[in-house]
Amino acid sequence: RSLLERYLVEQGYQVRSAGNAEQMDRLLERENFHLMVLDLMLPGEDGLSICRRLRQMGNELPIIMLTAKGDEVDRIIGLEMGADDYLAKPCNPRELGARIRAIIRRTQNGNAPTQTVVHAELHGIVLDSGARTALVDNTPLPLTGAEFNALSLLMERVGQTITKQEMTEE
Fold first, then answer.
1. Span 7-27, pLDDT tens digits
2. Per DSSP, what are the bridge partners of residue 139?
3. pLDDT (tens digit, 9 = 90+) per residue, 132-156?
């Protein structure tokens, strides 16, 4: 949990973590969230029960189920309980980040607060991963989704060699 929390904070997200259902419930009462990453195996109430309970209460907070149980049946059950996505551990943190961005993009509407995460600013280029826009010297740069992803990756890894395979996977 602490490793994922640190990674997501480094990516510009505001993160709150809870070690069990009681802590999570207290956080949900006090704050509004854009998304929940929920582990299946928690002490006390497990992630599937939490997901089912939240959905039965009408809570539509997007949930990514993150678990060591990667069997097809477990994934299906997680999705049937109301999870929006299911990712088996260990996972590449960049994949989790990509899934988080995809869900936030899909679920935000005109009334939702926009999350702005500037991945990089370099030589007059500014990337906003929340809005998936790029500016060059404050002028919008029209990019396809793939072009945005490629530019984002290159700006995140300035000075590093990136293989074609890595670029394709990312």
1. 888 877 788 888 888 888 888
2. 136
3. 778 888 888 887 777 877 888 888 7
How far is CA 140 from its chain centroid?
25
Read off the pTM: 0.60
CB 51 within 8 Å of CB 63: yes
Judged on CB neighbours under 10 Å (0-12, 13-18, 19+), 103 is: middle
The rounded mean pLDDT for the chain is 78
CA 78/CA 73 separation, integer angstroms: 9
Q: Which two tokens stand for residue 151?
A: 């530019």
In sequence order, the 6+-apart residues with CB closer than 8 A to the CB of 39 are 1, 47, 65, 66, 67
C-alpha of 165 from chain center:
23
d(CA 16, CA 9): 10
Q: What residue has token string 């370099």?
A: 122
Length of the chain as a residue count: 170
Whether residue 63 contacts residue 82, with contact meaning beta carbons closer than 8 Å, is answered with: yes
CA distance 135 to 123: 11
